[in-house]
Design goal:
By secondary structure, the protein is of the alpha/beta class. Helix content is 30%, strand content 22%. A 6-stranded mixed β-sheet has the order 2-1-3-4-5-6. Helix 1 links the parallel strand 1 and strand 2. The structure holds inosinic acid (IMP). The site of inosinic acid has 17 residues, from strand 3.
Length: 204
């Protein structure tokens, strides 16, 4: 049995991505945990050698928990485009290149869709996927996966959020994630979906 998580629990968010850390801290706010990030503690980033979101989330959470002896939470996430057989998938961050320029990454997605003549919304289906792994200092681990589906638009719209948000329009909305109020994105995102599954481990 993993110890329950609740007010005052110290939790290390195993990420150096400021956008992700911000979203995870927002989602965790109601639970009054003591949240620190791997970036703040200067922990090294392990190589993501897994072949799935779940494997990579676990690699990151394990590395951070071992390095800090703390309860660690890692997120591995990305954009899976149906017409591209799930690409960029676990390589979503890498498609942005060393400059981490997500306009470049979105353009690559758009070019790959263009090469397939994918102009109709039904040919431009995609999902954001998020795996969340928790690892306790005693090595106990739990992983949860969440998803949100939508359509890719071009040109990108909006300046909020991060990564591929400006080209992703979730089902049931006529705005992109980057045009939404962050609170609204948090209600429906892949991260929120995985997070809601993880809440079974939290104290009331
Ligand atoms: P990771 O750090 O290897 O998990 O990289 C995940 C990448 O997927 C991020 O750098 C983003 O490009 C993309 N991504 C994940 N979640 C989101 C999101 O909520 N919005 C936009 N892009 C996302």
């Amino acid at each position: 049995m993993s110890p329950p998580i609740g007010p005052g629990t110290r939790l290390l968010v195993a990420s150096h991505n400021a956008g992700k850390v911000r979203e995870i801290a927002d989602l965790l706010k109601p639970y009054r945990l003591e949240v620190v990030s791997a970036g703040e503690l200067g922990l090294p980033e392990p190589e993501e050698t897994g072949s799935t979101f779940k494997e990579n989330a676990l690699i990151k959470a394990l590395a951070c928990s071992r390095a800090s002896c703390m309860l660690a939470l890692a997120d591995d996430s990305g954009l899976a485009v149906e017409a591209l057989d799930g690409e960029p998938g676990i390589f979503s961050a890498r498609w942005a290149g060393p400059e981490k320029d997500f306009y470049v990454a979105m353009k690559k997605v758009e070019q790959a869709l263009g090469a397939q003549g994918a102009t109709k919304p039904k040919d431009r289906r995609a999902s954001f996927i998020c795996a969340l792994s928790l690892v306790w200092p005693d090595g106990h681990e739990e992983t949860f996966e969440g998803k949100v589906s939508g359509t890719l638009i071009w040109p990108p719209r909006g300046s909020r959020g991060f990564g591929y948000d400006p080209m992703f329009q979730p089902d049931g909305y006529d705005v992109t994630f980057a045009e939404m109020d962050p609170a609204e994105k948090h209600n429906i995102s892949h991260r929120a979906d995985a997070f809601n599954k993880m809440l079974s481990l939290f104290k009331d």
